Amino acid sequence: GQQVMQIPQYQHVQEGEDFTTYCNSSTTLSNIQWYKQRPGGHPVFLIQLVKSGEVKKQKRLTFQFGEAKKNSSLHITATQTTDVGTYFCAGPNYGGSQGNLIFGKGTKLSVKP
Amino acid sequence: DAGVIQSPRHEVTEMGQEVTLRCKPISGHNSLFWYRQTMMRGLELLIYFNNNVPIDDSGMPEDRFSAKMPNASFSTLKIQPSEPRDSAVYFCASSPRQGWDEQFFGPGTRLTVL
Q: Could you say which residues of chain B have pLDDT below 70?
């Protein structure tokens, strides 16, 4: 069945270092979404990418959608302790009804001050 | 604006007991989702409603689980009887339209079944 894979599963960085998480889909996606979940919290929507090769920035966060629309990445420049959490990508689940997202397992980021 | 509201925030119960989780979606949102999150399985969709009608319940693990949405502002997820393997965080999320829009998650209910 359709899969959305994320790597790495965990990432430990020193504050100030950069961080990247990668998302790979088994199928071409019409869009991809990114969410952040703080420890003990709930997923919070960050961004949606729609176009092939699209790059969007939110302050220190850069999101990219691959040319083939099967992969995506989230890059954080100069991490801060506030970046701690788990980052999920999600894409449309074409095996389900419209509106159903399939989430990756997430990348858990820890930042050492 | 109030976000998605879930209650209770924490629930501890004994195996065999009935558990009811509640959700109030964001006003005006047409789609509502129930998810279960565990370390092993990640975030799993249990059921999805659109305009109060269940659209996809293929993620509901078994007959012990049931969900209802009697009106646009309220939904319940019931587990009867509960089992220790049901222990997880259950999230409710809502979305403005049917379609693959962003989803707004509630704070979750942490369920522990002893």
A: 1
